[in-house]
Amino acid sequence: MSNKPLVYLTFIILVLGGGLLIGAGNMPGDWYQSLAKPSFNPPNWVFAPVWSLLYVLIGVVGARTWLTLRHSMAMRLWFAQLVFNFAWSPVFFGLKDPTSALIVILALLVCVIGFIAASRRQDRAAALLFLPYLAWVAFATALNGAIIALN
């Protein structure tokens, strides 16, 4: 019997659970509501379902990478992106520091791109599964930058 389902479940719980806990502990409050936002800022309700779906994808990709490329640069980049991902909300919302959050999200963007580049030859599916995440992080980076510019 394979432990693959357990590995997938563990990674999904780690990422989705961690993301939801960090999100719940760093909710946008009055400070965020008072900020000027760009015209392309989505409504607040969009973020939770989008991130939940992305966290499941990130967990699946992490499990795939763990099972096939555990000691690779791709796995190191996967863990690095998770650290930066989990750091962003506490920096932006918790510390109320969009400028430092922009540095965090730029590092996240670099790690996501690096993961895709590092994994695309050995696990094309994992690289492709990270493309929606890349698109969302690029969008979130632009949003973060626009909030800084407007405030």
UniProtKB/TrEMBL annotation:
Q: Which GO terms describe its biological process?
A: tetrapyrrole metabolic process
The organism's place on the tree of life at top rank:
Bacteria
| Membrane topology (UniProt) | Multi-pass membrane protein
Name of protein: Tryptophan-rich sensory protein
Q: Specify where it is mainly localized.
A: membrane
List the InterPro entries hit by this protein, alphabetically.
Answer: TspO/MBR-related_sf, TspO_MBR
GO-annotated cellular components: membrane
Q: Which organism is it from?
A: Shinella zoogloeoides
The organism's taxonomy opens as:
Bacteria, Pseudomonadati, Pseudomonadota, Alphaproteobacteria, Hyphomicrobiales
